[in-house]
Each structure stands twice: as C-alpha cells, then as structure tokens.
Amino acid sequence: MNLKEKTILVAGGGISGIAAAALLEKHQIRYILYDSKEELDKEELAKKLREAGAGEPKLLLGAFDESLCDQVDLAVLSPGIPTDQPFVNSLREKGIPVWGEIELAFYFEKGTVAAITGTNGKTTTTALVGEIMKLYYEKVFVVGNIGIPYTSVAGDTTAESVTVAEISSFQLETVHQFRPHVTAILNVTPDHLNRHYTMENYENAKLAITKNQTVADVCVLNYDNEITRAFGGRVQAQTVFFSREQKLEKGVYLDETGGVILYNDGDKEQPVCEIAKMQLLGGHNVENVMAAIAVSAAMNVPLDVIREGVYSFRAVEHRIEFVKEVKGVTYYNDSKGTNTDAAIKGIEAMVRPTVLIAGGYDKKSPYDDWIEACLGRMKSLILIGQTAPKIAETAEKHGFTHIIFADSLQEAVQTAAKEAQAGDAVLLSPACASWGMFKNYEERGRLFKEYVHDLEE
After folding, report:
1. CATH for 103-312, options being 3.40.1190.10, 3.10.180.10, 1.10.760.10, 3.40.50.880
2. pLDDT-derived band of residue 190, with 50, 70 and 90 as boundaries?
3. pTM
4. pLDDT at position 102 over 70
5. Mean pLDDT of 400-404
6. Quick one: which H or E segment has residue 381?
7. Contacts of 418 (CB under 8 A, 6+ apart)
8. φ, ψ for residue 113 (rounded to 5)?
9. Measured between alpha carbons, how far is 183 from 172 in angstroms, rounded to an integer?
10. By three-state DSSP, how is residue 161 classified?
11. DSSP 386-423
C-alpha cells in the first residue's frame, strides 16, 4: 500500500495518536484525527499536535460521523481503542483497512526489529534487551508499550539500526505486515479478559506477534508456561526456549546448582551469568533475564556483552522497586503489578513479613491464586479501589482476616506505616489496573513513592 496516495483516519488523541499523526505529517501524508471524547479541548489538542510536528490537521471529536468512511482509505487505531467499537465496525464494513500504531510504524521501519510480549515481564525484559543492544549496536531505539510510541522514532530508523519493542495484546490485535526478526512471548496467564472476552482470544492476540515470521526468524518462548510451550508447535519461526525448571537440549536454562544461567546454541553449552551477581530481585526476573539472553543472542550479540548488560542492569521503575527504609521497614513499589500473576511474583520476591497494599480497577479477574500465594508472607492486607470488597471476600474465604480498607493510596501508606514493625516490608502490588483512581500505573507508583518519602523517620 502506497500511503502517499491515501487519506488516513488516526483514531485517538492521546500520545499514540499524536505520534502517529506527526509521522504522517513528516512524510506529507494526508490524515484526519478523530477522538470520540467530545469533552476534549480542541485547541489544546491542536497545540499538542503542532508541538509534535503534526501540522494543522482536520480534527473531529465526539460521535462518529459515518460520512468519514467515504473520506478515508485507511484507519490507524491507538492501542486503547477496542477493535469492536461501533465506529471501527463501520470502517470494516466499508472495506477500509484498520491498522494499529505498531503497524503504521513498521511501514516506515528500515532496520532490524526485536519485539517482546507476554502477560508479565515485558517492560523489564524490553528495557534489559535495549540496554544490551546499546552496548553492541550504535543506533538503538527502545519503544512500544514501554512508554515511547513506536511511531515517534520509526521515521529515524536506518538499515543499521535496531528497534526493541514492547508490544501489548491490544497492539497485536491489528497486526497485518508487522514482522520482527526476533520475537519473545514471555508467558500467558489470564488478563484483559474485559477486552478480549475469552482466553482463546487473548492467547491468539499474543501469538499474533509471530504472525508474519518465517523460518529465517526466531521466536523465544517460555518452556515453563504451558501456553507458550504449546506455541512452539504453532509458530513458523525457529523456536528458542528458556526454562527455570528444566534443563533443555537447546536454549537458556540453569546449571545443576540453580545459580548460573547457561546458554546452549545446540552445539555448545556456555555460562552467561551468575544469579547472585544480578541486580534484579526475584525468580520472575531470572526468567526475564533468560528471555533477554535468548533474544540478544538471536540478535547476534556476543555472550560477554550480554553478561555485561545483565550485571549492570537495575530494575525498572514501578516493578518491585525499592523505595526507602523507614524505621526499619522497607518499602517497595510494584505498581506495575496490574494483574494477579504479576502480583504473585511481587509477593514471592519479599523475604520479610509483608504489609500488602492492593486493589484498583476491576478487570474481572479471579483472586484466589494470588491470595493463596500471599498466605504465610502477608501479615496485613490494606485494600483500596473498586475491587476492595471482592478481594476482601476472597481473602476471607481463604482464612485471612487481617484486612483494612482505605479511601485513598495516601491513607493506605499511612496505615501500612502503623501496621508494619522494624524488620517488615510494605509492598504496593495492586493486582489490578489503576484506572478510576489514577491516570496509569506510573502515576500510582510515583504517588506511592511520594507518600513513603513523606513518612516521619
């Protein structure tokens, strides 16, 4: 498709939509920007577009005008827009192709791409792979769901550049030609079922990252996750497994002591790094490092460079992030624990009796497995947000009754400080999305850290 001859509907006036608009403007491609939120300030949005270099486009807000279908040749959706929205269905019924921001960015991509998805661990693994790539390649872009729109850099890629992209299931719903050289699916556990409706739909969305790969490409998969292990028989790319539980004939796994990560390319087994020398905390991060090793090796980075990158890498913000010690109590920010599987990894990383702060937006997830994982580690449970009653009911069902409700995160932190004693930990690991109380998990995490730093020493 030659976009120079098209008029494109960019749907969504947030960071992704603005970046997509700027990319189109840079290449002198006609577009119209649409957002269903009629309460948006049109002048403010136009200002943001100008500042991003997106020119002065036609802006439409509010109810979708069906006549738009006769004015555009292609639609580009921001990730937050469900693909079953009525206006999206109208576009499809008119035969108008529907892309996502990732697909648009890839249209302009000139270099080599490594793309990472999974229910949990995406951000840490993507950031780690990005840091490893920067030690070896001159021009590296780290983009996607990690917070930097792919479209904001796609026009700057070259034949020699490397792009490392964190890709969500939302972004993978609209894949057409997107073909990374190396992909990784870290794990798949129930999440976002309010958007995907069924686990089968969710699994297929994750698998779509491999949709256009061939035997010339590589897909890295978690052998210990039943779903991703089964993906090995469904992808066209060469598969490389990693495992914390099994010794593999080929791939990334642990030595007999469980303290050294090994890489086996099928011909030779080589030690990569000692877990004790890593700065990342928790067994789940061992898996993230294993995946990063496999991806980096598939991108032709030498093992000594990979080792250097792993040892120097620190945890990303909001993922079991040490905040401060106050009166002998350690505080950890795991605001990125937005689902139960991630929150299980958060509580399992704690080595002290833990006061847990949790709750938030209801994504229709069950909480039994998470609460069971907390038993024996959690001394108090402080709940906030929409899901507080549901989580409390689940905890009581499993015999845990030391539950406190708080009206705000600030109140929760202050209550946790009173509950915790020297030698304890306080962990924010919500097991829920942040929507309704906060703009995103980053805002939730930043506020948590502010409230911790405000505590009396």
Report:
1. 3.40.1190.10
2. low
3. 0.74
4. yes
5. 97
6. strand 378-383
7. none
8. -120, 135
9. 12
10. coil
11. TTHHHHHHHHHHTT---EEE-SSHHHHHHHHHHH--TT
